[in-house]
What does this fold into?
Amino acid sequence: MTTDGILISQIKKEFGTLSSRSDGSIDREYLARTVFQDQEKLAELNKLIHPRVAKDYERWVNEQKYDYLLKEAALLFEAKSYQALDKVILVHASREIRINRVLQRDPQRTRQQVEDIMKNQMRDEEKLKLADFNIVNDESRLVIPQVLELHEIFKSMTK
It folds into this structure.
């Protein structure tokens, strides 16, 4: 939503002049207030964003020369893009930890806004059933050793 001119134009057309700032950039706060309270508007925004993200990701993958690639996506399961991947890693923490992390990262958001966003996401219990690997990111375990363990697994799979 910051660099794709086609997507920016589509969002402005679909969500009107209030969806953009005076400098032409997308007003993400306005969009969040608009879509996370209205399932139909959220679906419309997702219809615009997901195909553009998929196209950009495909271009990026074709440029890479590594043994394996990782794809990070907040809505990997909700957008069903996990289905095109060989393996899926779920990085998870408790709901409360995630809320607090978002509030720290995005001080402009309220707790209610974060909860509204999370209501539109798949529950962790469902994601855990779909994931092939899990990384616990709740400060009960170190993350880097978990990542390195998966790195060894993936290296061995590419041989």
About this structure: The first helix runs from residue 5 to 15. Helices lie at 5-15, 28-35, 39-63, 95-105, 111-119, 124-130, 143-157. The chain has two domains: 1-65, 68-159. The beta strands are 89-92, 133-136.
